[in-house]
From TrEMBL:
InterPro entries, A to Z: Glyco_hydro_64, Glyco_hydro_64_fam, Glyco_hydro_64_N_2, Osmotin/thaumatin-like_sf
Residue stretches making up the GH64 domain: 72-449
Signal peptide stretch: 1-21
Keywords: Signal
Organism listed in the record: Talaromyces rugulosus
Protein's name according to its UniProt entry: GH64 domain-containing protein
């Protein structure tokens, strides 16, 4: 539509950018973080954990325990430091989550669960406890043992130190406030950090994943060893993936004028710290970003499938369903309880708002169409030859035409083994493919986490 105008503008901005540091040159580009204090924290559902706060002492199932008491759900984490060129000089691990009673826990440096105090303060209060678990030097492996089962857990790895906070939840309780990847003023914004998510329970065993659905930060990989000697791996990204992804995003902005480059954050020296997913960027006060990016494409999709159907393979007992717009604003699929309005860019990148928001009462067909339709938009496969059946085309056809979720493309380009979600329905694939970065086992013996790239 106005692609040429944008291209001309971007080229002009590039040409004059070195001499003119004005509003044109700075319209899109990596965002330099400026870490603030507790009042600069933006409390959202993505960086809070709202469990029970029993406060400051070691208490399990309502009973005081001796500080050394360990449960039956111990899990050793072997953390391999492959981090070349640490900025801080000290890589630290932090663990946060909930115990099986729903209490918020953090792992203290003495190896016990620390129960942070609740608060009635509306301004986040920093947790004053010894929570940093230092890793050994580059090339070494440090073993950190989780003292018991954990739910909704995160194992954070940081080049330097992280701060954790508590804030009132406004309803007589409190919330744990964890580092935010999206807020450039977050107190932790200048630290290079990331996390592995895990849940380990007696009934369900261990589930651990590395996700790039929200951002790419410090480079992490995983390997799970079972007590039977079996191993599962999710190798994660290459050592220099953040710089590679950000360079590709900067080039993408230079070619199409959209703010891909603004997904990247740098420290005060200009070093890339992380890349945000476009949904997270849009949600963080950038509501207009990418707003017309998919408009022409969506109109073409709607007219292409006006009467000739888009076939969605539900990959369930419901089989294939035919979807058409009939020239209307709504795409309607056979046996689906409701149709799909045209999505916004934010709806496409996030897959959980607008036409992609699931509602109670939605039937099995609707539950199957939402992920498959949203994945097809992110990968730009709907108008390709063979794209009238979804899912159907192989991964080599994903992201081959614009518009596409280029963040997802560049993340996948840098994945060592192709595994790790870059948007929430990245597990939609033709039968036999699975790109999730998940490891799971009922008989976990050790979870190995590599920091700074896979071991060679
Ligand atoms: C936790 O509580 C805070 C404060 O009320 C709220 O803003 C946040 O969305 C809640 N988090 C979750 C995950 O529900
Ligand atoms: C990753 O693991 C966490 C904790 O088990 C879980 O809540 C989350 O849904 C998982 N995410 C993905 C993308 O599998
Ligand atoms: C991919 O593998 C993960 C981990 O085993 C599993 O949770 C997920 O359901 C699988 N996805 C598909 C589409 O098979």
């Amino acid at each position: 539509m106005h692609g040429l105008a944008k291209w001309t503008w971007a080229l002009a901005a590039t040409m004059i950018g070195q001499t003119l540091a004005g509003p044109i040159a700075s319209k899109h580009g990596p965002i330099r973080v400026h870490p603030g204090g507790p009042r600069d924290i933006v409390v959202t559902k993505d960086d809070t954990l709202n469990g029970t706060f029993i406060g400051g002492t070691v208490k399990v199932d309502g009973l005081l325990q001796s500080a050394s008491a360990a449960g039956t759900g111990q899990l050793p984490l072997a953390i391999v430091n492959n981090m070349a060129g640490s900025t801080d000089g000290q890589i630290n691990c932090y663990v946060a989550g909930q115990d099986t009673s729903g209490n918020v826990v953090l792992l203290a440096s003495d190896g016990t669960w620390y129960y942070p105090p609740g608060t009635t303060s509306g301004v986040p209060v920093v947790i004053d406890a010894d929570l940093a678990l230092p890793l050994g030097a580059e090339g070494s492996t440090t073993t950190i043992t989780l003292p018991d089962y954990i739910v909704s857990g995160r194992v954070y790895i940081a080049d330097g130190t992280l701060q954790f906070f508590v804030v009132t939840n406004g309803a007589g309780g409190a919330a744990l406030v964890q580092p935010s990847p999206v807020n450039p003023s977050d107190p932790n914004a200048a630290v290079n950090w990331g996390f592995v998510e895990l849940t380990n329970t007696a009934d369900g065993g261990l589930y651990a994943n590395i996700s790039y659905v929200d951002f790419v930060g410090i480079i992490l990989g995983m390997s799970l060893l079972g007590t039977d000697g079996s191993t599962q791996t999710a190798l994660g990204l290459g050592a220099d993936a953040v710089a590679q992804i950000c360079a590709a995003l900067v080039s993408q902005t230079a070619s199409d004028g959209y703010p891909w480059s603004s997904l990247c954050m740098t420290d005060s020296s200009g070093n890339y710290l992380r890349a945000l997913a476009p949904y997270d960027f849009i949600a963080d006060n950038n509501g207009d970003a990418f707003s017309d990016y998919f408009t022409d494409y969506i109109n073409s999709v709607w007219s292409t499938f006006s009467s000739s159907p888009l076939t969605v393979d539900t990959q369930t007992d419901a089989g294939e369903v035919a979807c058409t717009t009939g020239g209307s604003d709504t795409l309607t699929c056979g046996n689906d309880n409701r149709g799909y309005a045209q999505p916004s860019a934010g709806d496409i990148f996030g897959c959980n708002t607008g036409p992609f928001a699931l509602q109670s009462g939605d039937n099995a067909v609707h539950y199957a169409v939402v992920p498959r339709l949203c994945a097809a938009f992110n990968r730009g496969t709907l108008l390709l030859s063979g794209g009238d059946v979804q899912p159907g085309l192989p991964a080599t056809d994903y992201y081959t035409t614009a518009p596409s979720n280029y963040y997802s493309k560049f993340v996948h380009d840098n994945e060592v083994d192709g595994k790790g979600y870059a948007f929430s329905y990245d597990d939609v694939n033709p039968a036999g493919e699975n790109e999730s970065g998940t490891v799971s086992s009922p008989i976990a013996q050790t979870l190995t986490i590599t920091v700074g790239g896979p071991s060679s």
